[in-house]
């Protein structure tokens, strides 16, 4: 049976209904040693049993004495004190006998002989004494209930005489990956195999949230097997997460299994991604059916599962940190769902800017790259570029403020420079987006990037970059920093089986080309050469197939989807392709003059001038770095 009709509850409503139906969690408790309690949640308020210090103690090395005997002491009138008669020698932490009421530091004493000392200033009562209970008084509240124990709390608890305490047991969360197509990581892959990584992500999330993950082996799409595993997990664990099989496919059994062995309360919530989520109860334990797509799974885990895993330990979920940011691109949304849009953040001209990342529910890298999440309400159709939006943070504000935003033409050396810069100075990061040279210029114009790598050939003069900067960024003074001269050429399969030598060859019958996107420098280079040779784009099979990076072009050739693509030498060697050079081009970095004195920009320039960077270029091959880092135009 295919379960086609899903509900479309609003997220908060769904959670409210679900929690109500689940009823109160019965929280399990255990008594553990205080020294093992870091990160655990207290069941009760903890009051001290003893005071700390539990006796009057010396705060300094010196002598304990009676203050009245010192009152007449001054620079002009030294007073002599006798051991055992007037004082005893004490070290820091030593108990102070009742008859003494102050401590004088050893630095303030003049030794007369073995038994006598002289003092030259008076002491006040209780000076340099830590009185009993100065830090903690018996019966004082040390930490409240439902408190997550920190290392400092452990110190105060032990000082207060508490050596063991009751905490909530870590809930055991069963994780069941399902799918006949799933294979364990490391298996040699056949077409159609899917590496199970969701269950490993869930395990890590569960442990971040204080739970113990218990992962079950992959279960095939077999009703009986899924049912047996759910029954087993619900008896062994405090909660069960079952992955995939949530939507309308022929082998999506999860909802039926939950209904049969327990109660399915909700199937379908108005969130995107993540809509086919299931919430139910089996063996009186919460069970959540999590959609298969990794990004859907992530949001269902964060938005729904997390509060239950935390609730099982008595933790109240924290409110997310939110910042205001200006949206750089229109973000579309559907009226049917609350949408979670992953964004990359930048900090430019003293404000945060947010650029939406790939939207697909399978785009795992969008989560890796994301600095935050824009939530678009269910009743909003989309948000225009330029709008100030609220972003829930996944990264720290400080990191984003220390990130150089580099948008423009892609070259693998930018990723290398990024890594070297961070190694040189751990506080700095570089984020790069590949939108082609013209896209980079537009980003500089709009104040959305600190720098733009470009390689734009002037078709009339044959000169690179300068004329474009002057023409397309009229309102800002721009510096061009030399990056590299790089060899562009044809990337072909090893041995160049189709014998591609020249731009003329691209129009040959039966040869499949793969192009770069419009606005990219490589595309301009192609068009320039085609125009020179009078070849119309329609003549080239694959001209309209666009990729966004050199590596993506190389990957298409390597996979056999195309016979030839135009790109840089390093991308060809990385993909083990042959390379037929066609020309050298100037790959430079445009930086508005107002940013050139920023410390992070200076660090970037130092990075690309560094020996380490040049060594990396040498390894890649195909780059001329004689002028790298020079400001060639201002
Ligand atoms: N006709 C319809 N088809 C789909 C609908 C729909 O409403 N009607 N909903 C789509 C949406 S939205 C989602 S989300 C997915 C949910 O799919 P399932 O939960 O049934 O999961 P599968 O189909 O088994 O897997 C989908 C996809 O997820 C990845 N995956 C699954 N398991 C793992 C794992 N353990 N580790 C890593 N990745 C995993 C994999 O790419 C699968 O192909 O359904 C849509 N379809
Ligand atoms: O719910 Mo699906 O997760 O929109 O991709």
SS-based structural class?
alpha+beta
- Overall shape: it is flat
> What is the quaternary state of this protein?
single chain
Whole-number total of structural domains: 5
CATH topology of the largest domain: D-Maltodextrin-Binding Protein, domain 2
Task: Give the bound compounds.
Answer: ligand LQZAQKY5, molybdate ion
State mean pLDDT (0 to 100 scale).
Answer: 94
Q: What is the CATH class name of the largest domain? A: Alpha Beta
Low-confidence stretches: none
CATH architectural label of the largest domain: 3-Layer(aba) Sandwich
The biggest beta sheet reads: 8 strands, mixed
InterPro entries: MoaB/Mog-like_dom_sf, MoaB/Mog_dom, MoCF_biosynth_CS, MoeA-like, MoeA_C_domain_IV, MoeA_C_domain_IV_sf, MoeA_linker/N, MoeA_linker/N_sf
Organism: Sedimentibacter acidaminivorans
Keywords: Magnesium, Metal-binding, Molybdenum, Molybdenum cofactor biosynthesis, Transferase
Protein name: Molybdopterin molybdenumtransferase
Helix and strand topology:
Blueprint: H1 11-22, E1 29-33, E2 46-47, E3 57-58, E4 62-65, E5 79-82, E6 87-90, E7 102-105, E8 109-113, E9 116-119, E10 129-130, E11 141-143, H2 151-159, E12 164-168, E13 172-177, E14 182-183, E15 194-195, H3 198-208, E16 212-215, H4 223-236, E17 239-243, H5 254-261, E18 263-267, E19 271-272, E20 278-282, E21 285-290, H6 294-311, E22 322-327, E23 331-332, E24 338-348, E25 351-356, H7 364-369, E26 372-376, E27 382-383, E28 388-393, H8 397-401, E29 403-408, H9 412-424, E30 429-434, H10 436-445, E31 452-454, H11 466-472, E32 478-492, E33 513-516, H12 521-532, E34 546-547, H13 550-558, E35 564-568, H14 569-574, E36 578-592, H15 599-609, H16 611-620, E37 623-624, E38 631-633
Residues 272-276, 291, 293, 296, 361 line the site of molybdate ion.
């Amino acid at each position: 049976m295919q379960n086609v009709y899903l509900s479309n509850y609003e997220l908060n409503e769904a959670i409210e209904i679900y929690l109500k139906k689940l009823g109160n969690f019965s929280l399990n408790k255990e008594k553990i040693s205080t020294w093992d309690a870091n990160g655990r949640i207290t069941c009760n308020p903890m009051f001290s049993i003893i005071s700390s210090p539990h006796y009057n103690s010396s705060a300094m090395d010196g002598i304990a004495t009676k203050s009245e005997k010192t009152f007449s002491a001054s620079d002009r009138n030294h007073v002599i004190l006798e051991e055992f008669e007037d004082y005893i020698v004490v070290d820091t932490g030593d108990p102070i006998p009742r008859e003494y009421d102050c401590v004088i530091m050893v630095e303030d004493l003049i030794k007369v002989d073995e038994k006598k000392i002289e003092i030259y200033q008076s002491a006040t009562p209780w000076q340099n004494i830590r009185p009993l209970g100065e830090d903690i008084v018996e019966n004082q509240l040390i930490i409240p209930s439902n408190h997550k124990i920190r290392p400092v709390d452990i110190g105060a608890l032990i000082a207060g005489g508490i050596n063991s305490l009751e905490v909530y047991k870590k809930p055991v969360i069963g994780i069941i990956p399902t799918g006949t197509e799933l294979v364990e990581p490391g298996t040699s892959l056949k077409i159609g195999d899917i590496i199970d990584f969701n269950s490993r992500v869930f395990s890590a999330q569960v442990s971040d949230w204080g739970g113990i993950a218990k992962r079950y082996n992959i279960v095939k799409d077999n009703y009986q097997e899924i049912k047996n595993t759910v029954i087993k997990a619900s008896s062994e664990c405090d909660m069960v997460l079952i992955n995939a099989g949530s939507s309308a496919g022929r082998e999506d059994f999860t909802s039926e299994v939950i209904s049969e062995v327990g109660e399915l309360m909700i199937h379908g919530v108005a969130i995107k991604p993540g809509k086919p989520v299931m919430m139910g109860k089996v063996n009186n334990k919460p069970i959540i059916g999590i959609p298969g797509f990794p990004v859907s799974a992530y949001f269902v885990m964060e938005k729904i599962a997390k509060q239950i895993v935390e609730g099982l330990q008595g933790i109240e979920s924290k409110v997310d940190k939110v910042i205001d940011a200006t949206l750089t691109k229109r973000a579309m949304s559907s009226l049917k769902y609350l949408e979670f849009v992953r964004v990359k953040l930048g900090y430019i001209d003293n404000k945060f800017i947010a650029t939406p990342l790939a939207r697909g529910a399978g785009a795992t890298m969008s989560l890796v790259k994301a600095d935050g999440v824009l939530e678009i309400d269910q009743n909003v159709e989309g948000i225009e570029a330029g709008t100030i939006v609220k972003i829930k943070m996944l990264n720290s504000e400080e990191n984003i403020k220390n990130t150089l935003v580099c948008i423009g033409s892609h070259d693998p050396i930018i990723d290398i420079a990024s890594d070297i810069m961070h190694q040189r100075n751990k506080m700095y990061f570089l984020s790069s987006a590949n939108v082609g040279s013209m896209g980079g210029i537009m980003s500089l114009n709009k104040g959305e990037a600190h720098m733009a790598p470009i390689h734009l050939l002037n078709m009339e003069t044959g000169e690179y970059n300068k004329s474009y900067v002057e023409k397309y960024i009229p309102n800002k003074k721009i510096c061009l920093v030399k990056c590299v001269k790089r060899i562009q050429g044809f990337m072909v399969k090893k041995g160049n089986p189709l014998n591609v030598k020249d731009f003329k060859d691209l129009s040959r019958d039966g040869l499949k080309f793969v192009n770069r996107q419009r606005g990219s420098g490589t595309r301009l280079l192609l068009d320039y050469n085609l125009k020179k040779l009078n070849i119309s784009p329609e003549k080239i099979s694959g001209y309209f197939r666009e990729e966004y990076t050199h590596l993506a072009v190389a990957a298409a050739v390597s996979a056999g989807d195309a016979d030839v693509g135009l790109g840089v030498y390093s991308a060809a060697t990385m993909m083990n392709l042959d390379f037929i050079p066609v020309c050298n081009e100037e790959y430079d970095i445009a930086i508005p003059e107002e940013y050139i004195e920023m410390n992070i920009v200076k660090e970037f320039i130092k990075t690309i001038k560094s020996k380490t960077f040049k060594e990396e270029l040498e390894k890649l091959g195909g780059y001329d770095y004689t002028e790298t880092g020079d400001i060639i135009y201002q």
